[in-house]
User: Which sequence fits this backbone?
């Protein structure tokens, strides 16, 4: 098999040029535009890698600390405990899981296992293109199908591009760099129309961030026996990008083929421990998603105020149209300490990862300065009920509200018949975002019954409401 891989030097050169086939993490070491002033030790403003600004979960940190004491011992060669935990998490057999050093290793293994010279891979463009690069390294041809006018992967067009040599379909859902999803309805039609002998690979690196009701994980197709390989990573919502763990979920047959291409002992002792602990820390994932939602809201408000068009995103990054040369804006942002990505054949678009609140406000202000417009510094979010999480809930839910003035805020829960169940806030709050917890109890401290509840928020002349479901 051709092992003509991109060298580290070629990769770094390609990365700074913003070419669409760039995929590896590690661009931070490059000392050239738009990363000129980028110091890999400097984490503030690092909005180019779609990392988790909250870092690893505290359970993962504890597990890694404990594992470090055994750092002189080789790890579980086959990551058996980790694969077992992942299998439990997805409710599949552990022989359907292959853990590796990041999704990056898994993607390479999939290409090495299934692709030979003369084969064809059909993929979207732009997308996260590692599999396409690996395909080329293995002598396979790649058919690139453009995303549609809403930047969504067009499954009809992908289907139409399948030919007699097609071996693999490579999809990323949600997609990187646009942050869009294809719907479960479209995917069902696509899977049902798949010719025999074609394997579908779906990279779900950003799965946890999605809120759309039209999205679902393709792991369901693995369970239903379709020729599907789903790929996940611990680098994003679990905050372990530096620890390097990813995995595939596929049939027992595909999994054993993939594993036979893999060296043993690839996932470190610390990596295995961290991943196992992360799977148990649901709160950390929830906090990550909640921070991401708030960060995206700041970005969207900022883009709207600056009259910049953006692509609605289901991920922890967003693309927006600068209306001018994106490379020039990116390099001016870099000189102000904010590092973003450009490329993918989209010369006016920038991809920015979400970060902390401070980074988001700072980024928008830097952008405003660059675009030379008048934008209020630290503009508070507008009035509203931004999200309720989890919903449905059993123990407690967190209601995120944004208040726009210093007038009294009233937040209360009503039952479906319109009776007030509990008042949560009746106070003057600082303008901005607030997380309010409802513990599922009524005004007397008794557990409220299962059912639908209305959350009502008022401030001065503004009022809004949303629903939450309590399941006991
Ligand atoms: C879609 C997608 N897949 C895979 C990866 C790489 O994942 P990992 O860090 O697990 O190698 C990335 C990294 O940004 C990504 O965006």
Assistant:
């Amino acid at each position: 098999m051709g092992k003509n891989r991109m060298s580290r030097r070629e990769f770094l050169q390609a990365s700074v040029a913003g070419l669409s086939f760039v995929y590896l993490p590690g661009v931070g070491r490059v000392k050239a535009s738009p990363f000129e002033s980028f110091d890999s030790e400097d984490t503030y403003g690092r909005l180019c890698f779609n990392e988790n600004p909250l870092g690893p979960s505290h359970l993962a940190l504890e597990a890694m600390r404990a594992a470090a004491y055994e750092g002189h011992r080789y790890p579980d060669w086959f990551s058996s405990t980790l694969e077992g935990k992942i299998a439990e998490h997805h409710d599949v057999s552990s022989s359907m899981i292959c853990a590796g050093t990041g999704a990056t290793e898994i993607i390479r293994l999939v290409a090495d296992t299934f692709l030979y010279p003369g084969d064809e891979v059909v993929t979207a463009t732009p997308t996260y293109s590692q599999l396409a690069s690996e395909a080329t390294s293995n002598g396979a041809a790649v058919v690139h199908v453009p995303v549609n006018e809403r930047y969504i992967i067009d499954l009809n067009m992908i289907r139409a591009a399948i030919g007699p040599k097609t071996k693999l379909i490579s999809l990323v859902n949600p997609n990187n760099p646009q942050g869009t999803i294809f719907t479960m309805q479209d995917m069902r039609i696509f899977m049902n129309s798949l010719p025999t002998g074609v394997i579908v690979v779906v990279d779900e690196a950003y799965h946890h961030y999605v809120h759309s009701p039209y999205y679902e994980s393709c792991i369901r197709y693995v369970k239903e026996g379709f020729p599907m390989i789903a790929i996940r990573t611990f680098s994003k919502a679990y905050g372990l990008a530096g620890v390097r763990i990813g995995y595939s979920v596929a049939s027992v047959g595909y999994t054993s083929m993939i594993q036979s291409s893999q060296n043993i002992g690839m996932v470190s002792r610390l990596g295995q421990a961290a991943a196992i602990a992360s799977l148990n820390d649901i709160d950390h994932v929830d906090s990550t998603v909640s921070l991401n939602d708030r960060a995206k809201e700041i970005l969207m408000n900022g883009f709207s105020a600056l009259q910049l068009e953006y692509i609605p995103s289901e991920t922890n990054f967003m693309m927006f149209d600068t209306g001018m040369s994106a490379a020039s804006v990116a390099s001016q942002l870099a000189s102000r300490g904010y590092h973003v990505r450009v490329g993918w054949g989209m010369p006016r678009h920038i991809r920015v990862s979400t970060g902390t609140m401070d980074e988001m406000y700072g980024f928008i202000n830097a952008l405003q300065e660059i675009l030379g417009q008048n934008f209020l510094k630290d503009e508070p979010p507008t009035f509203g009920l931004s999200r309720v999480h989890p919903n449905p809930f059993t123990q407690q839910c967190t209601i995120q509200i944004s208040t726009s003035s210093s007038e009294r805020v009233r937040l209360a829960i009503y039952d479906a018949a319109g009776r007030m169940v509990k008042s949560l806030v009746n106070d003057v709050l600082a303008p901005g975002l607030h997380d309010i917890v409802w513990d599922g109890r009524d005004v007397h401290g008794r557990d409220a019954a299962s059912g639908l509840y209305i959350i009502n928020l008022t401030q001065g002349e503004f009022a809004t409401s949303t629903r939450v479901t309590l399941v006991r």
Remarks:
- The pocket of pyridoxal-5'-phosphate is lined by residues 25, 50, 102-104, 128, 172, 176, 203, 205, 233, 235, 241, 246 (CB under 6 Å).
- Confidence is low (pLDDT under 50) at residues 1-37, 374-378.
